[in-house]
Amino acid sequence: MKRTLCLLLALALLLGAAFAEETDTANAAAYAQAEQLMRDGRYSEASARFEALGAYADAAQMAVYCKGLSAAEDLLLYDTAVELFLSLSDFRDSARQAEYYQARGQEAAGDAVNAATASDQALSDGREAYARAQALYAGLEDFRDSPQRLAECQRKSGVLDAEIAQRTEEWKESTYQRAVQLQKSGKYLDAMALYRLIPEYKDSAERVDDCRAGLADSLRFVMAAGPRHTVGLRKNGSVVAVGSKRYLRCNTAGWKGIAAVAAGWAHTVGLRKSGTVVAVGDNSQKQCATRGWSGITAVAAGDYHTVGLRKNGTVVAVGWNNEKQCSTGKWRNIAAIAAGGCHTVGLRKNGTVAAVGWNDQKQCATGSWKNIAAIAAGWKHTVGLRKDGTVVATGWNAKKQCATGSWKNIIAIAAGRAHTVGLRRDGTVIAAGSNDCGQCDVQGWTDIVAVAAGWDHTIGLKSDGTVVAAGDNTSGQCNVGKWNLLK
């Protein structure tokens, strides 16, 4: 009995071994067939065959591997393929396959962009996709067809680059032409904003400075400064003022429709767009008696007198006249006016300069001046801006406030008690004279389009409408940080 059982067991073992060998042979054949399907590019079928092999060898991993290939090559689902290969970790070349299909996905994103019809943003996105694909292919070196695909991505990226370059040039030219038209129409701020978008294109940088020069002329009367107060004209025609409240010199809150402002010792003057004039503050010398004026195109304020330029080129003045600073009745063909402490200056249309009033320091010695484009008057000195951008000055010079002989490329000037300010074409500022209160500390100012000078302080208007100040602030006359005069 025992012998029979042993024989039966031996026979079972032999039969089992034979069956296992037969099964193993069958699995190996099926595995080989699946591999062949994979080599033939029939990835979906190969995956199914590997899955059917269950736990045989690495069939389970190969099934996922072929799914990844199928997702990418059959369905173009590159992200899915990448996820499948990454799930295989270090199996075979799965890591490199994942990177390869990342590159293929980026390349496909670039291919989706039609250079001729795509938006600018789509072109940029396509170029970036090609760049990422190129970086991945380069890292793969000779894996599969990476070198060829790298070269092809470079070619296709070049097509997008060419389209972007062409569009950029067209945009630059269009922007430039719009800026030129704005500049021609006197809309200098808008033109400057456009030129600054294309600083390297043609002569845009130079045209920014040209616009600044135009602005400087149109913004001459946007700011004014007295000894202890500062006045600003907003774009909407209202007026803001800071500093000493004595004599109500800063009482401008109700003013509307103002086109220009001026500031005296303790009074403020506003020229309405209608050509009439309003004034507040100290009126002890009748310097605010401007109610009957009309047809005025410009105003100026001295210590205790007020001056108005009529449309016909004549000049009217009221206020303290002890030094004959209001004796302007015979002036003709005047194009601009300025008022100092006790003297008045007029720029004739022919570029020469007239002056009356206190002359103890030769501040009225302007008879020989020629080719003057703008004037300014300090307490006891007078400044002239020549058409060539140089500056001449006469009068009290104890603080070297008249030391402007070396100045060049100046487009606007201002004069205080004992200092002189010049605005350069590039938007920087230069100053000479007394700096006892830091009123000449303007070296760091940039992008300035207008300047004004008080007794011992200096004001600068930037192209964005904000205002900077330096110097004496004992009465709060420099508290202009919250102003915006161009918005």
Task: Explain what this protein looks like in three dimensions.
There is one protein chain. With 487 residues, this protein is of the alpha+beta class. It has a domain at 224-471: Methylamine Dehydrogenase, Chain H (7 Propeller), CATH 2.130.10. Helix content is 36%, strand content 24%. The chain is built from nine helices and 21 strands. It has helices spanning 2-39, 43-52, 59-73, 78-87, 94-111, 120-140, 146-184, 188-195, 204-218; strands at residues 223-225, 229-233, 239-243, 258-263, 267-272, 277-281, 296-301, 305-310, 315-319, 334-339, 343-348, 353-357, 372-377, 381-386, 391-395, 410-415, 419-424, 429-433, 448-453, 457-462, 467-471. The strands form seven sheets. Strands 1-2-3 form a three-stranded antiparallel β-sheet, with no helix packed on it. A hairpin with a 4-residue loop joins β14 (381-386) and β15 (391-395). α6 packs antiparallel against α7 (146-184). The protein is rod-shaped, with a radius of gyration of 42 Å. It starts with a helix and ends in a 16-residue tail after the last strand.
